[in-house]
Amino acid sequence: MSGAIKSQIVFDTIPSDLAFIPRNNQTTGDFVIAGRITDHNYSFLKISIFDKTNQILYKNQSYTVNSSGYFRLVPQLLSQLSEYDLKIYLSNGIDSILVKTVFDLVCGDIFIIAGQSNALSACDSINTYYPQYYSPFFRTIGTHYSNAIQREKAPSNTSLSEDFKWSRPSSLYSQNGFMGLLPLKLQYELISSTGIPICFINEAVPGTFLKDHLASNTPSDIIPVIDSNTIYNRVFLKAKKHNLSNFIKAIIWYQGENDIQLITSEALQYEENFAKLYNSWKSDFKHVERIYVFQVNNGCHGNDFNSGGLIRHILAQLKNSFSEISVISSIGVPLSPDICHYTCYNYTKLALRLLPLIQKHIYKFALNDTDIVSPSVQSIKYKDSQVIQVHFDIPVNIQPPLLVNGSLENVKDYFFDKGYHPIPVKSIKSENNILSITLTDTAKIHKTLTYLPNSYYKQGQSLYKGPWVMNRKNNLNALSFFNFPVL
Hints:
Layout: H1 3-6, E1 9-13, E2 20-22, E3 28-30, E4 33-37, E5 44-51, E6 56-64, E7 70-73, E8 76-78, E9 84-91, E10 96-115, H2 117-120, E11 138-141, H3 145-153, E12 166-167, H4 181-194, E13 198-204, H5 231-241, E14 248-254, H6 264-267, H7 270-284, E15 290-295, H8 308-321, E16 325-329, H9 344-361, H10 369-372, E17 377-382, E18 387-392, E19 396-398, E20 402-404, E21 407-409, E22 415-417, E23 421-422, E24 425-431, E25 434-439, E26 448-451, E27 469-471, E28 481-485
Parallel strand pairs: 2-10, 10-13, 10-14, 11-13, 14-15, 15-16
Antiparallel strand pairs: 1-4, 3-8, 4-7, 5-6, 5-9, 9-10, 11-12, 17-18, 18-25, 19-27, 20-21, 22-23, 22-26, 24-25, 26-28
């Protein structure tokens, strides 16, 4: 905009290039254009909005400003696979002058992804471009937290404001808008299946404990100045700046590997700390419809510490404490050689485990739970002195024995008493949603039951990779459980 035109109009509120306009519950999204015309020779504003095929949404629609020159317009965009350009003109009723053009607006749904490195999903090819997962209808804000903080502290001193700008997601780690393969694949599949543009706000930070993600205050805006250097606050401020706080559709949480390193008394605080985080989310993003929690895999510090099964169990049981939560098993998705992270391909497999849940809950796809969820234990009871029955919420199957390092491994050998003491099991079978475990020793009464080891097979140094208890319909792994009461 030239200096002469700047002196004729001042914008207080106007979307920037690449801006993402949140969709309401219907098929449109509103945005605000507000400011003041300072040249009294002009008393009208005209706007035109058109997509890349020159399909017109608004054409020279005229608005009269008030006697002081102030204006406030609320145009709408259609939520569809279109990028829009906005042109704003000053008019005196006869002649018009173009004063502002905004490029590449889209309208759709906003999600937050949070947690640690597996939520960030910077896989083995962080400098590889994946064109098959890109779309002009993706958006994010700034870059991921670690990258932003590093830039802001560097000698070049990148401005904080850079991390609050709209970006197109990029699989290149060093670029603005970095997006790992889990959210990138998920965005792509959601756009393809719903026809709605998608924005992800990235709150994932490698190597963090749950407590590192807690808000400074709840609600966050209870204080006038909010520290932008904490993980939670940075995301809250991004949403607030762009008026997205009331439009967050869902939050995706993949975190817990670091908390496995905690001693048991500290690991037991995971649910309490998660409740604090949940309350912050519900306070700051009031219209969140669902929260999706990944139960972490059975690697990543698991055999070096004793809290792996406990943290996995707490994550699995969160859905019983919070009605909006769904829990997805990551168990069974192969880990990388570091037994903590995934290959790029396997991050896309995690996205595909989550995809149908979002399609069902957020977009009302006609999907049955039995086809898309991870089986979850409901109760465990003695049928008689010889048989313990594990009741799941949906029908389950048992994967056949697997040959591992020359040893035939059977899932029946991976049920434990308290303290990971193996339970001698004669046989195991599944019938509908009941898993029947026939005991070898009927003299001992087992008061708790654990499914799956911390990490390794019973013979030692090899990561447990099955066999598994699985969803009968889709072979999705059952959620593991730890010290579950036996009645």
